[in-house]
């Protein structure tokens, strides 16, 4: 059984007109029907562009925002049905690592206090001596010196601060860690160190992760399974190797195409296709397939009318596209083929979101 099981989760934020007779005028469908399963000891990577609902999904799982519908179970225990009082002691089992540790760590507390506070709040047995031993051990585990205990968050670099954030998430020995963009505020050189640290900690403590990023490259090496989100729903999910080897949904192909290839010869020779239009508003998502307004493979009139379900193709590879097999086999062609990027494809008028038409763009 999965450690984390999410079913048909929806988070719709009401939009209200601001006058005396305030009424609801529709809703922002930030998360709209997400299923996911994270097996114990594994990492589930969730990617998608800004505004697609990743943080809202994470916050709904953590019960930091109340879902509109659906269910979330941790180790078989339903989390959404619990009162806040019943939920509080369970919170030690699921902890979060945030994008910006400066914002999530109280600047007035030193590291010792930041790490001891959760132990006291959850009345973890052992008292001050045992707590002190535990946090010293934890500091070493996340690669910080014991002298860090007396210091305050602003005295550390971004990477060190994220190590403190990770230590704070770990101090209660949680079953699940949800990391929302854990490295996107960090320099590229530090990102890999923090990702490697998460990986080491997982092996050492048999942790289970849900890792969120807008960049496919970030979750690639840490994830067992990767899911791609678009406008509130998962549109493709597969074992990580498979997703990077053969991205199948047109949107995933677009995201892969947006990952720059370090080799200029490859970059110039890439045959790209423009991803049409802007990301639609989650307050007014397109009917039918939510991606059809931007999809170069869209077919009249099914894509505009019928919302594709997430269905299994092979070996755990799930795709929400009516024409996934036809696209993969080249039986239907994209509508617009643009020149390589080195020419005028990326103009001031076009977003730099380009669709890579290579069959297997994952190889880098
Ligand atoms: N409290 C809220 N009230 C109303 N709308 C909200 C609220 N929180 C988020 N939204 C909207 O829900 C959508 C999803 O937002 P969310 O922050 O989950 O996206 P995201 O994928 O995490 O984006 P990013 O990559 O920028 O962090 C957005 O359109 C956002 O404006
Ligand atoms: Mg976010």
Q: What is the distance, rounded to the nearest whole angstrom, between the alpha carbons of the first and last residues?
A: 34 Å
Could you tell me which ligands this complex binds, including any ions or cofactors?
Answer: adenosine-5'-triphosphate, magnesium ion
CATH superfamily of the largest domain: P-loop containing nucleotide triphosphate hydrolases
Main sheet specs: 8 strands, mixed
CA-atom Rg in angstroms = 22 Å
Fraction in beta strands: 15-25%
Mean pLDDT across every amino acid position = 87
Give the CA-based shape: globular
| CATH architecture annotation name of the largest domain | 3-Layer(aba) Sandwich
Low-confidence runs: 337-364
Number of strands: 14
CATH class of the largest domain: Alpha Beta
Element pattern in H and E: EEEHEEHEHHHHEHEHEEHHHEHEEHHE
Percent in helix: 25-40%
Q: How many H/I helices?
A: 14
State the strand order across the main sheet: 6-7-8-3-9-10-13-12
- The CATH topology label of the largest domain is Rossmann fold
Number of domains: 2
- Structural class computed from helices and strand pairing: alpha/beta
């Amino acid at each position: 059984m999965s450690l984390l099981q999410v079913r048909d989760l929806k988070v719709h934020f009401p939009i209200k007109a601001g006058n005396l007779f305030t009424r609801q005028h529709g809703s922002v469908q930030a998360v709209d029907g997400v299923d996911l399963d994270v097996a114990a000891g594994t990492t589930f990577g969730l990617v998608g562009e800004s505004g697609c609902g990743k943080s809202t999904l994470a916050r709904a799982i953590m019960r930091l925002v109340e879902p509109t519908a659906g269910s979330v179970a941790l180790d078989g225990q339903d989390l959404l049905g619990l009162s806040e009082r019943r939920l509080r002691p369970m919170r030690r089992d699921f902890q979060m690592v945030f994008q910006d540790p400066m914002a999530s760590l109280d600047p007035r507390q030193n590291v010792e206090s930041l790490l001891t506070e959760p132990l006291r709040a959850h009345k973890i047995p052992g008292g001050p001596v045992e707590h002190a031993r535990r946090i010293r051990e934890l500091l070493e585990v996340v690669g910080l010196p014991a002298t860090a205990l007396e210091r305050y968050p602003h005295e550390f670099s971004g990477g060190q601060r994220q190590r403190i954030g990770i230590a704070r998430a770990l101090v209660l020995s949680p079953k699940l860690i949800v990391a929302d963009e854990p490295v996107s505020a960090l320099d590229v050189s530090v990102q890999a160190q923090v990702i490697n640290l998460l990986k080491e900690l997982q092996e050492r403590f048999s942790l289970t992760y849900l890792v969120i990023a807008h960049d496919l490259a970030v979750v690639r090496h840490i994830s067992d399974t990767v899911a791609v989100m678009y406008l509130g729903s998962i549109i493709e999910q597969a074992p990580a190797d498979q997703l990077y080897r053969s991205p199948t949904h047109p949107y995933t192909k677009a995201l892969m195409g947006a990952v720059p290839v370090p080799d200029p010869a490859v970059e110039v020779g890439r045959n790209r296709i423009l991803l049409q239009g802007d990301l639609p508003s989650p307050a007014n998502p397109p009917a039918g397939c939510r991606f059809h307004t931007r999809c170069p493979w869209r077919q009249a009139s099914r894509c505009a009318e019928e919302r594709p379900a997430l269905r299994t193709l092979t070996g755990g590879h799930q795709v929400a596209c009516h024409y996934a097999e036809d696209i993969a086999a080249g039986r239907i062609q994209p509508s617009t083929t643009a020149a390589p990027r080195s020419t005028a494809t990326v103009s001031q008028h076009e977003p730099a979101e380009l669709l890579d038409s290579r069959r297997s763009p994952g190889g880098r």
